[in-house]
Specification:
It contains 13 helices and 13 strands. It is an alpha/beta fold and 343 residues long. The protein has a domain at 2-180 and 226-255 and 307-322: Rossmann fold, CATH 3.40.50. The protein has a seven-stranded parallel sheet, sandwiched between helices. A two-stranded parallel ribbon has the order 7-10. Strands 8-13 form a two-stranded parallel ribbon. It is globular, with a radius of gyration of 20 Å. The structure holds nicotinamide-adenine-dinucleotide. Residues 6-7, 9-13, 31-34, 54-56, 75-77, 79, 94, 116, 118-119, 176, 178-179 line the site of nicotinamide-adenine-dinucleotide (NAD).
Length: 343
């Protein structure tokens, strides 16, 4: 099998390609504008072909790769909340327009597509557990432009579904719920306000002994999912035993990884205190409450909670997260601390 992965250097992409090369005899071709997460050992592997470039410039090359592969997994996107507010057009152009070309190629060349949707498509729906085929997708007013990411993903989900409905496109959509783990972000991204994911931001604050910002009090709840568990779900989708993933959407999230941002801060502070580095560099800065509109800008609107139903993934993929929230956060924190060394 040959798999084509745009965005292969990303948090999910590089973990997926490492797993594929280690566990299967499949071939992978990838493209990314960066390559810092791809280890030399991987870049020199005979079954991995890497193109260092921008998919919006290398469009013909991208089309050729879709034509040549068996499965395409387009992972390139902007997936950092502050950029939905600062650069909504960039989000639309990459997350929707560029990925639309790939969807169209997959339909034209009759290739299987495994597409990353997101837990954000459910938006502000009030369901206790979000269900792939029943929950509504509820977004806010147009001037809250943070919803552009959710809407771009949702519309692509619908386009992909329509291609199956009208032309038989073979797709599977998966919706990651806040995956976390080693390799999450670059720690230096966390220094630009908000330019990283929340776990990275909190860890950077702890490492630099700066107060952790709890936006609007930090009562928002999210379900964090360990990267390896998510990748296991993707591997099951790619293997597609008895074709059970065809035409399906799967939430890949850990319903037991549910906690508020305030609780997340407390958990990370506690885990850090138990780490030997804390003796030399204790964290004393604590937390502080900041106003969401001041912190993110006027286009901000938040979602109080987000919890997946994983009944379908359990039933059709036999998938279930294996890693506890605490282990998941410990591994993520330790990865950042190891990177930083004994500074
Ligand atoms: N990580 C999560 O928890 C999560 C949650 C929901 C959805 N997703 C979706 O999963 C996918 C992968 O997420 P991720 O966490 O790995 O994101 P990421 O930001 O770590 O990776 C995206 C990769 O795409 C690359 N890229 C961006 N523009 C490109 C271009 N023009 N040409 C080539 N490469 C380009 C980036 O350099 C980066 O390596 C995204 O579509 C994201 O929306 C992720």
């Amino acid at each position: 099998m040959r798999i084509f992965i745009p965005g292969v250097n990303g948090f999910i992409g590089n973990a997926l390609v490492r797993r594929i090369i280690a566990e299967t005899d499949w071939y992978v071709t990838g493209i990314d504008v960066d390559k810092d997460r791809l280890e030399r050992e991987l870049l020199t592997n005979d079954r991995f072909e890497f193109h260092h470039g921008d998919m919006s410039i290398s469009r013909e090359w991208v089309e050729f790769q879709v034509k040549r592969c068996d499965v395409v997994i387009p992972l390139a996107a902007i997936a950092i909340p502050v950029l939905y507010i600062e650069k909504p057009l960039k989000v639309f152009q990459l997350d929707f327009m560029e990925n639309l070309h790939i969807v169209e190629h997959a339909a034209r060349y009759e290739k299987r597509i495994i597409f990353p949707s997101t837990s954000e498509v459910y938006g502000m729906v009030g369901d206790a557990h979000f269900r792939e085929d029943e929950s509504n997708c509820v977004t806010g007013p147009i001037n809250k432009h943070r919803w552009i990411y959710s809407c771009a993903k949702q519309l692509l989900d619908r386009v992909i579904h329509a291609y199956r409905y009208e032309q038989g496109l073979n797709y599977t959509l998966f919706r990651p719920f806040n995956w976390t783990g080693p390799g999450l972000d670059r720690i230096e991204q966390a220094h630009k306000i908000g330019h990283s994911r929340v776990v990275t931001k909190f860890i950077a604050n702890i490492m630099h002994n700066e107060p952790i910002n709890l936006v609007d009090g930090g009562e928002q709840r999210r379900c964090f999912t360990y990267l390896d568990d998510g990748i296991e779900g993707m591997m099951r989708i790619i293997r597609n035993k008895d074709n059970k993933a065809d035409g399906e959407i799967f939430n890949l999230g850990n319903p037991n990884g549910d906690l508020s941002m305030r609780e997340l801060a407390d958990l990370l502070i506690g885990l850090y205190a138990a780490h030997p580095r804390a003796k030399k560099f204790p964290f004393t800065a604590g937390t502080r409450v900041v106003d969401g509109k001041t912190y993110y800008g006027a286009g901000y609107q938040d979602i109080p909670m987000r919890r997946p139903s994983i009944d379908k993934a359990r039933e059709l993929l036999g998938w279930e997260p294996q890693t506890s929230l605490e282990d998941s956060m410990r591994q993520t924190l330790n990865w950042f601390l190891d990177l930083d060394g004994d500074k």
